[in-house]
Structures are given as structure tokens and as C-alpha cells.
Amino acid sequence: MASFHRLRPLAVGLVVAIALAGAVGLFAVDAGSEASSTEPVPFHDTVTTGVALENVGTEDDLDEVDVPKAQVFYSQYEYVVGYRGIERFVDAHGASGHEERFGYPLAVYVTDYGASGGDVQLTEEGYPTLEDGNADWIEAESAVFVVDSDARTPAGETVVPFADREDADAFVDDYGGTVVSWEGLLEHEFAIDDAAVIRDRVDQRHARADELTAAATSLRDRPADVVVGEDAATLEEAVETAPAESTVVVPEGVHEVPDEIEVDRPITIVGQGGGDGAETDAETTLRGDGNGSVLVLASDRAAISDLRIDGVGDATEATDDERADSDDVIEGAYGQGDVGVELDEASNALVENVTIETPTTGVLLRDAPESVVRNVTVHGNDQWGDGDMAVTTIRSPGAVVEDSTLVDGRDGIYLHRSDGVVLRNNALENNRIGVHLMYSSGTLLADNRIEDATSTGIDVMTDPEHNAVVGNEVRNVSRGILMAGSRSYVADNLVTDTDVGLTTGAGNSIYEGNVLAGNVVGVAANNHLPTNEVTGNDFVGNDNHANARIGTLRVWSEDGEGNFWHGAIGSPDVTTDEAVLDRSHAPTDPVDQELHRVDGTPTLARAPATEALTALEGTVSGMRSESIVDPAPLCEPANPDLLEYTEWEPPDRTC
């Protein structure tokens, strides 16, 4: 359970506080407040943010990594905040709006990596590790810090703190860097990509995917040296005899594949019947015997195109021998078993214009970086509990899955330890989960359509960073988009007909331009730290537009603009150039949350007592838990083009 500290009451009366609320704005400095206790607490009792070790390497690889840490007591946040990576606190401390959300630091403690905490060394990768595994907590203001050294975390450069200058100097002698004071550290700049950088990289990620796709599709242009039925009796024989950089042509019709065929050279297998947009009913079918995988690409730049594959076996998990060869439990569960097409240690490979009928996995990428799966149709098991994924990527960074239709099965697309993957323009239907990310950062999910998932449309898990979820349409699922991790960008998505449309579990992230319409709950604010920017979203026709978990007040506006709330009341604010209302909207407030559903609540909402209480909640720390306020709600929808794709038409308003 997170540790918390309590603030003393403000030395002002209720009437004075209400009067001041209108004069000084949403936040007032708690000048008379101080923590009753700011002694260091066990780090596992803090509300933690920062570097997530579970996303890189195995548990054994990172077991001895000791990331330098800070814990901070804030004046307007009742829980102690723990930062994995002191540079993460420095970056957050200097960010716009940080003090408004948290108040000022009452006390900051850091871990001592000097003699009192055990001798610190760096691993081969530059990760700090302590001889005895324990570091004492010391006051940050009395510590010295080594910056620009060889010390790293899996997320990049890190700061190493010391209680004694001599210990810091010794560390510099061994690993380089510069010793700075606490004041100097707070002025230091660190290369930490924030959510705005991720927003700016969306076009770059698309461009990189375009380059990979162009290079992969050029593999179709290899000369046709071997034709099955003419130059070789069977496909297996053709694959064995085809020279590298050639094409094996498979005529239309059904070709039996009694044993798994492995492609161990950079060749292309192309079906002669249909594919690539040709207008023909002819098909080239590779048919397994129902007892294993059908086709394995085990070479860089191998390619297949214009094929239909069926007769896949029904084994969904690894054999005992396969489990013995892998130390990853997830891979044994989801990355083994029978597959229609498997890419195994095959980088820059291509699977294009392929239809797969499978009771298990359709396409599996294992150690297949920068490979491309495009225009693929997978029909999986209609009982997802008996099936596997339509497309799975394991340790395949930079892969591209696009323009594909993935129906039924456990998950439409499943990523495991595959950073930088691009998933775009896919249609996912009737899966358990449409897109499922595990231990995968830097992913671009763009313009996918997800319908009728049993559980979740998009599920981002295990604290990743730098994901972009943009322009997706999620309909008729239990939970729409579940975010986790940090420093991500979630924008321009349409989510409708769900129990929960969107969760803001990814901290230090931007959520903008989304339409949440016709859901039971539009957005569930489930990140404990109020570090997200939530603006320009449209909340229309939801039973509850938004709710909040344990934590402090979330302020959902930026630079004088908030969100559109169906039912919000007020007049155009003539004091600003923005098209906003002159009354704030709090979707977690018992009155405001009824404005779009029950007649008579606008009158109650305008009552002086109600408005005074709302103002007070914004100024007194103890009254700010589990709530959301938008100080500048929009007069009209921000995303009318997206809203047209729903059945909801909010009342017309013109500022």
C-alpha cells in the first residue's frame, strides 16, 4: 500500500477559502501547510513511476540492477512519490504544470551509492549494481550527484547520488562524469523523450514502415526459376532446389504438405492463382495434414505471397523439448505450438496476400525483426479459449503488420518483447483481445478497426514507454483502450459501445482528440499520479463521462482549452480567445455527472453553494482526492468528423 503523509489544515476559515478561490484561481499555495512526517519510507510503499525494468531482458538478467531512486513528499499530494531514476524526478520537476498538480516538494530523499550504501559498480551494460544490494536514504539537498558518466539504466542515462564527495570523485575516476550539487542537478537537462516527442514521431514511424514495406514487397520481383509440377514434382522439392534470390511458383489448386516445409534461403514462394488484386476465383492452397505447422521461413529476406493455407495442427503450447529450450514462460505458452506460417530468425521477411484457416496461430514472428505481414487474412478458432493468436510477434522489433483482417481466436495481434512495431489499417473482429502488448515499447497502433472483442479492444500492459495509439476505431467490446506505462500518445481514436472506453493508466502521457461516445464509462482515470495531459476529447452520450480512482485531483485542460462534455453548462467565456465555457465542469461531481441525463440539474449546478464547494475542492488538498475537473470546457465538439461515425448528435452550440 502506498505511504501517505497528512497536511495540517489551512489557517483560514471556510468563507475566506471560498472567497480566495475566485481570486487566485484553481490552486492556492498551501502556505500554512507542512507534513506531519516526512521521514523516508520503504520504496515499495511509494506511488512509483520511472524506469520499468520488466520491459527489458529477463528477471535473471536484471536481478542485480540497482536503479538510483528518489522519494518525494509534496505539499498537495498525500502519497509519497517514488521515482526510479533520479533524472525522472528532475525532468518532472521542471515540466509545465507539475507544481500545480503536486504542489512544491516538502522533502526529497535519494539513495546513497557511497560506502555507507555498499560499493557501487557498473555492469557490462553500464547498469549500477550494489555489492550488498542495499542503499541508505539521504536528504537530496545534502547529497552530491554524478552526471554524464557511463552509468545507464535500460531507459538511458542515469544519475548516481552520493552522501560523500570523496565517494563521488572515486566513481568519476572509474566511470567518468561530473559531480554536481542538488541545485546544479535541478538545472541539468536530460534526454528523456516526453509524450510530445512521441506525437511528433508518428509521421516518422509511418515513413519508416513505408520504407520497410517497399523493400519487402520488392522480394516479389525475383526471377521465377522453379515451377512446381514442371521443374519439381512437389513444393518441398522445389524449395530444396531453388537457388537463392529466386522465386518458386506454385500453380493453382491444392498442394498437400504432409510435413512442415522449411525455407532456409532467401527465396520467394508465390501462388499462381489469384492474389495481388487479381480478379480471379482461382486459389493456390497449401494444405497441411492437421498435425503440425505448414510453412516455416527460417532465412532473412524469405517471402511468400498469393497463397491459401489450411490443415494447420491444433497444438497451442510448446512441447516439453521446446519448453526446455526456452526460459520464457510466455513464449512457451503463446510462441510455440502449431502455426500456419512461422518466421523463425528471419529478418526483413515478407508474408503478403495470404489467407490462413487455423485452429491455433496464423502467423508467428519469432526473432524476425523488421519483417512485414500485409494483406493477410486469418480465420482463427471461433472458441478463443481453444485457440491462439492470429498474428504473434516475439522479439521481433520494427516489424510491420498492416492491411490485414484477423477474425476469431484468442488475440488478433499479440506483441511480446517487440519494440518499435507498426500495426496499421488492420480489421480485427471477434477476438478475445484485438491488440495485446506485453513488454513492448515504441509501438505505433494506427487506424485499426476493432469490433466485437470479448474482452478488450487494445490492451497495453507491463509499463512500456513511447507507444502511440492513434486513429483507431473500437466498437462493441467490454473495454475499449487500456493504457499502461508512461510517456505515450493516445489521440484521434473513436471508442463507442463499451463498458469502459479508455483508461489513462499510462502516466506522463497525452490523451487528445479522442471521441468517447455511448459507453457506460467514457474514461477511467486510473493512474495514481496526475501527470497526464487530457485535452480536446469529446465525451458524448456516456452513462458516466469519466470517473477517477484513488489519487488526487486531475485537471484536464491545457493552455486554456479543455474537452467537450455533453451536458456541460455555461456561456462563452468572453475573457479568453478560446471557444470555451465560463464555468468549469467536473465529471466526477455528483451534480455535473448528471447534467446530460437528468432535467433540472443545470439549475442545481448553478446554485451558489454548489459552485462555492466546487471552487473549494480545487484549493484544499484534503478535498482533492479521486476527482476530475476541466477548468475550460469546450463550447462544441472538437472532433465533429469522428463524431459523425456514431449515433450521437450533441446539442448544437456556437461560441
TrEMBL record:
Domain of life: Archaea
Keyword match Phosphoprotein: no
Pathway: Protein modification; protein ubiquitination
Keywords: Repeat, Ubl conjugation pathway
Location of the Periplasmic copper-binding protein NosD beta helix domain: 391-567
Listed name of the protein: NosL family protein
Annotated source species: Natronolimnohabitans innermongolicus JCM 12255
Highest classification ranks of the organism: Archaea, Methanobacteriati, Methanobacteriota, Stenosarchaea group, Halobacteria
